[in-house]
Specification:
The protein has helices at 2-38, 44-66, 68-86. By secondary structure, the chain is mainly α. It has one domain. The radius of gyration is 28 Å and the shape is elongated. 1% of the residues are buried. The model has no long low-confidence stretch (mean pLDDT 81). Keywords: Membrane, Transmembrane, Transmembrane helix. Its main location: membrane. It is found in: Membrane.
């Protein structure tokens, strides 16, 4: 139980940090864009093109960091499935040592 709480707190802290980075990116884009427009170095449309490109990449990063615990669980599940598939069964039905019953009732 404590391990799950620790994992949950860690993933939420990571998501909070990535959201903070997203909002810092937004505010930086707006500030730098306003300065560039004020000094006639960029147009209004150019600033918004860059803003949306950076915003979409920052959103992708923030959503990816929220999925880190799920990726770890998926890796563990995959390893477990391959362990089961690679294991040798205790009963092998095609073996010559097995006894085959002629009839079964019940």
């Amino acid at each position: 139980m404590k391990q799950e709480v620790r994992i949950g707190l860690g993933s939420r802290a990571g998501f909070g940090a990535s959201s903070f980075a997203l909002f810092c990116t937004n505010s930086s884009c707006f500030y730098i864009g306003a300065v560039l427009i004020q000094h006639w170095k960029a147009s209004y449309g150019d600033v918004f093109k860059v803003f949306f490109a950076l915003t979409m990449s920052a959103i992708g990063v923030s959503q990816t960091s929220a999925m880190v615990p799920d990726v770890k669980k998926a890796k563990d599940s995959t390893a477990s499935i391959f362990y089961i598939l690679d294991s040798k069964p205790d009963i092998y039905s095609n073996s010559e040592e097995c006894t085959t019953l002629s009839s079964v009732r019940g």
